[in-house]
Write a structure and sequence with these properties.
globular; Alpha-Beta Plaits; alpha+beta; single chain
Length: about 220
């Protein structure tokens, strides 16, 4: 399967509650009609996160399809066009981004029903070959991060080659997603030596910029 990951900020002047309610009701109802859509999850930034400022994004959508042909067929459908048209009702279209990815499960585990989900947007180290970046992330860094005991599940989403063709430059080279039982466990992770080792390793394959991230709660619309 392949996955489309989209991310955006809410429409200017729209409150967080109204934004989240609209996405989970009116917009989700449209997306559920997409032909060929196999799974659909919406991850919304925790409201408590707004106390420290505006997050990188207000929400992330993940949509799974059988393959690239299936995704392209969906994208040509009138249902997809209706969903895209609806975006302007609740998101800032200038903030919207999308990547197609392949998933790699690094730590198999449950998605806690009442847990939280950390979504981190990844940019590879300048000058590093793409294959080497992916291999290092998956085979070296991934197992290192998987040792962090409070992480319940860890999935890497690697941006697909199609987005780099003809000089394409995707906004991100991948997304790292980790699940925790709660915010306290996430805070605890930062005190662990395994976390320190993981962070120190990032310079070996990631760019020097601070990685954008959001802390969310997942809402599975189609399982």
């Amino acid at each position: 399967m392949i996955k489309m990951v989209s991310f955006a900020k809410r429409k200017q002047g729209m409150g967080v509650d109204a934004f989240q309610d609209y996405w989970l009701s009116a917009h989700a109802a449209r997306v559920k009609n997409y032909p060929g859509l196999r799974r659909y999850a919406v991850s919304l930034t925790l409201k408590g996160g707004y106390r420290v400022g505006e997050p990188a994004y207000d929400g992330v959508a993940e949509l799974w399809f059988d393959d690239l042909d299936g995704f392209e067929a969906t994208r040509q459908s009138p249902e997809f066009a209706a969903g895209v048209e609806d975006l302007g009702n609740f998101i800032d279209l200038n903030s919207r981004g999308m990547i197609l990815v392949d998933e790699h499960i690094i730590k198999e585990g449950p998605m806690p029903a009442e847990g939280v989900k950390n979504i981190e947007f990844v940019t590879q180290k300048a000058g590093m070959p793409r294959d080497a970046f992916r291999r290092y992330w998956r085979e070296v860094h991934g197992p290192l991060a998987a040792k962090i005991s409070v992480i319940q599940r860890y999935v890497q989403s690697h941006t697909r080659d199609e987005l780099y063709q003809n000089g394409g430059l995707p906004v991100y080279d991948g997304v790292a997603i980790t699940w925790f039982n709660g915010v306290e466990d996430m805070r605890t992770s930062a005190t662990l030596p395994e976390y320190t080792a993981t962070r120190e390793d990032e310079a070996n394959f990631l760019g020097p910029e601070e990685l954008p991230f959001i802390i969310t709660r997942e809402h599975v619309i189609i399982s």
